[in-house]
Specification:
Two copies of one chain form a homodimer. Chain A is α+β, with helices and mostly antiparallel strands and 572 residues long. Helix content of chain A is 40%, strand content 17%. In chain A, strands 1, 11, 12, 13, 14, 15, 16 and 17 form an eight-stranded antiparallel β-sheet that branches. In chain A, strands 6-7-10-8-9 form a five-stranded antiparallel β-sheet. In chain A, strands 2-3-5-4 form a four-stranded mixed β-sheet. The longest helix of chain A is centred in the last third of the chain and has 18 residues. The N terminus of chain A is likely disordered. Chains A, B: It is an enzyme of class 1 (oxidoreductase).
Chain lengths: 572, 572
């Protein structure tokens, strides 16, 4: 009886929405990544490109007009530039920092040494080639390095480090330079050690799915490689076309698959890293289980190149599963979204691969600012929307499982309305709503952006409180990875306003800290938040970090000014 | 046509084995754990109790005859005792170690201080109560501590540590004292800090499944608690009835759910730990994503209490899934087992929860030595057996998925024969074969045991090589967690023989090292393997471990003689 009723309701639902026909979409990711020549692949479009307020032309203009700047004023200048841009993007929170005087400056003898070990072609002094390496992807930070080195082997990295350490030459390790917190560009004249030439796959075990590769491998290349072998990378980022696995590991990149496969602390099996003094740390295990002493690799995962340069990585890749389904649903309130998550974890547990949410403000911003995007649900006022993705090994079973799940929750009233994608285009259009939010926000005015981890139950309280605090005409938008408790809090106003910023900060950090949240869920600390780390870490924890840094890098040459508070790292 | 053929084959298979009727076994673990009063629960029986060569009476005899021993000779004495036991169990590999002379000895002033902060009842000097705390579970190691402290709060642990550090009193942190490498008992007269009174659950988030609790909580109690809330602990050990979560974290315990949920480095979200100088490190985050500085908690996971005492733990618990199926299969060769694993990962990927293997030698040992155990397959000579368990959210779909999978592989010849459990008793009897191996080995003669991680493709080569090397009448048995590349290599001979040992060691360690394996997959280093760490870790890595140890515990008071080579730790 109950089952029949559920089917009736589903029918109503299906006929009122664009379609509930749940044809399973097998392998859509693969199909998309194969069309990557078009320049707008599914994965690429998801997060990274949409964060950019710049076109390629704007980027070139910026580079031409700002050239190479040589001290910390660059930060203010870059900020001023961004403030004055018509896009009204506001970056803030970067305190001035002084060059550490104990660092040497590059001289001709140094250049000669590097050429002798790396060869002429891998010692870059040409300004045109240095410029992009001195500039971060968001054009927020710009360094003034006069030297970029391109090692081709761990031994070369070791030689570089040993030499720089003895000469007190500061170093910034650089992968794809796609970081968002100023961690991968020089602050002053640090030597750039770019890993792009160490891009070989060393081995792949087709039974266990264990990949061993050099740090400079581009994530998308690894994705293609493992895909051909029937496996997937356990992380997937919008920046995959440029970012390198060494950088991913060094920043503990999160991304779209974290809810399913967990963090890199669980998926990285081994690392080879070169310490500040040139010591090669071989921790390149390929074992799922190894309880022999302290698990040192974790020190290098997420330490943003400040303890060593990651040169090789060993990763556990899960098998590729063929069946994917995506549903776009409406809920009445945040509590319903939470309940839906509980149910999805329980009933879809083993196939659930994404659980994203957005509020009605986020939906409106997207519908009002992005061309060609439409609400797949029939017109109605809904307060919250949820995107659920499942990935499993069997098309028909997985589809039925999702349908049964949705039938039940429609009947219970937890879901007010919903639609399941019936083809790849619909999958893409559902994801476009969620992933288009940052781009739509950029077009709507000045944006104040926060990437926070918060306890799930409290997460949306911050959005409500902020809304009450700021009033009209400021708009407060909440969306993010509900499955990971990761809130993207975005606040927009018609124009950038210092008074609004003063209303937001430090309130947002204090609120996050009070609820034991994280002020950086997935982007890291870098230069941007080095002085804000205490909002998420205790003084004792920061002190231990500083002690470890000083022990492993007594001259402080590795990625200085980043990760740890400037007042403490300056003591180096 | 092909599908029909598969069904015909299945019919043949089903009728020739005890039954292929694949009735799904929902929730069998819960059922078993609820009957734990019987003293032989499913989980209890799986691994831990079967490792014990002792009855309770033997344990008492040992304690009475050996009493409290005061120096390193205890190791030799214990070994002699074990050698002479009728069970012919051989423990080896423990080099003599000298008491570090810089450590103070307990005096009456110390006792007075501890009573003042902990109260009379929590300062234990009574020999009867000290004796079990001085003795490890395997009766291999016995210390001579005269003092056990029972703190009830983090603050009390901090007071203890600060005092002991200033007085140079050595400490051994102790949880359930269920370790297998001598890590949780004193070597000499170290003060035992037993965590059993810190056993409160602090919070549980029913939406996210995040559990926060004190370190002294017994794993089985946490399992019951989370089970009631609809979640499961991400680790499950045979020792669950005694072991404590703080000890689990400190040893990075592996266990039966690792293949599904991964290691504790992925599941532990936060830790509170007290350092050697009494500093309380609050790293008790409850967030899946937090990229703010070095992720220090990983230093405490698996460092066996040598860097700090874990006082609180925050864990991500997955939702409980209701449907479990178990199949017992026969394969012709090790390559087929590997191929079966590849297929299982791909086709059962999201529901696969165990993939165990045993060779025909292991099967024979079980059938010949354990009463009531029978081969569920029809009599035939098979070289390898595989146990596959699936756990999912939907009974009928999961069952069908497993059946379809088995049909196909029967047809392809990868599986020679097989049976799927049709009720809880059959589940139990299949697991009994796999989990009964250690017990059966103990009954078959002298046993030389090795717990190794090896690259999957090479894993069984070691068994073959060892078999060729040792010849008759020595028996070489290979089994273990194939899904985790964890080999349990066991060698039996009618009597213990030093010549056989010399044939095995150091060959087995050198072989493991040559193939970049781990000499301790899941048990840790403890006292037992402190001098063998170089077989699995590079000198540079060990040196960094020693530097970290010296930085965090300059007086070396925390769990001395363990984890790191004695020659290096003695320098403390």
């Amino acid at each position: 009886m109950e089952k029949r009723r559920a089917y009736v309701l589903l029918w109503k639902w299906a006929s009122s929405s664009s379609s509930f026909s749940s044809r399973t979409l097998s392998n859509h990711r693969t199909l998309f990544s194969r069309s990557s020549d078009s320049g707008s692949t599914f994965n690429r479009g998801r997060r990274f490109t949409s964060l950019s307020p710049y076109t390629q032309q704007q980027r070139q203009n910026f580079q031409q007009s700002h050239n190479i700047l040589i001290d910390s004023r660059v930060l203010h200048q870059a900020t001023s530039f961004l403030r004055s841009s018509t896009l009204q993007v506001r970056f803030y929170g970067s305190a001035p920092v002084e060059r550490i005087p104990s660092f040497s400056e590059i001289n001709s003898k140094d250049i000669g040494y590097f050429k002798s070990i790396l060869g002429e072609n891998n010692v870059i002094q040409d300004q045109d080639r240095l410029q992009p390496a001195n500039t971060d992807w968001m054009h927020k930070y710009q360094g003034s390095s006069k030297l970029m080195l391109l090692p081709r082997s761990t031994e070369e990295v070791s030689h570089i480090m040993r030499y720089c350490n003895s000469r007190h030459l500061a170093i910034v390790p650089q992968g794809g330079n796609t970081g968002l917190v100023g961690g991968s560009v020089p602050v002053f004249d640090e030597v750039i050690v770019n890993m792009s030439q160490m891009n070989k796959i060393i081995s792949f075990d087709k039974v266990s799915g264990i990949l061993v590769c050099e740090a400079g491998c581009i994530l998308e290349n690894l994705e293609s490689y493992t895909d051909n072998e029937g496996f997937v990378m356990p992380l997937d980022l919008g920046a995959k076309g440029s970012c390198q696995i060494g950088g991913n590991v060094s920043t503990n990149a999160g991304g779209l698959r974290l809810v399913r496969y967990g963090s890199l602390h669980g998926n990285v099996l081994g690392i080879e890293a070169v310490l500040a003094d040139g010591t090669v740390m071989d921790m390149l295990g390929t074992l799922r289980k190894d309880n022999t002493g302290y698990d040192l690799k974790h020190l290098f995962i997420g330490s943003e190149g400040s303890l060593g340069i990651v040169t090789k990585v060993s990763l556990l890749t899960p098998p590729k599963l063929s069946a994917t389904n995506v549903a776009f649903l409406a809920c009445n309130d945040y509590l319903s979204c939470q309940k839906l998550l509980i149910e999805a974890r329980r009933k879809l547990g083993e196939v659930l691969s994404a659980f994203e949410f957005l509020d009605s403000y986020a939906m409106n911003v997207v519908l009002n600012n992005l061309e060609g995007v439409r609400n797949p649900l029939p017109p109605a006022v809904h307060n919250f929307y949820v995107l659920i993705e499942t990935t499993g090994s069997d098309e028909s079973y997985d589809r039925e499982k999702l349908e049964t799940f949705l039938f039940r929750l429609m009947e219970s009233g937890l879901i007010l309305d919903g639609v399941v994608a019936q083809d790849i285009n619909q999958v893409s259009s559902f994801w476009r709503i969620r992933e288009g939010i940052p781009e739509a926000l950029m077009k709507s005015g000045a944006v104040y952006k926060y990437d926070l981890s918060l306890p799930l139950e409290k997460m949306y309280d911050l959005v409500d409180e902020m809304r009450a605090r700021l009033g009209h005409p400021v708009k407060v938008v909440g969306y993010g990875h509900l499955g990971d408790s990761n809130l993207h809090l975005n606040i927009t106003s018609p124009k950038y306003d210092d008074d609004i910023l003063a209303q937001i900060e430090p309130f947002v950090y204090e609120w996050t800290s009070k609820h034991r949240g994280s002020i950086s869920a997935e982007h890291g600390i870098g230069l941007m938040k080095a002085n804000k780390i205490y909002y998420s870490k205790s003084p004792e924890a920061v002190q231990l970090m500083v002690s470890i840094k000083k022990m492993m890098d007594p001259n402080g040459i590795l990625n200085p000014y980043k990760v740890l508070p400037h007042s403490l790292s300056a003591n180096n």
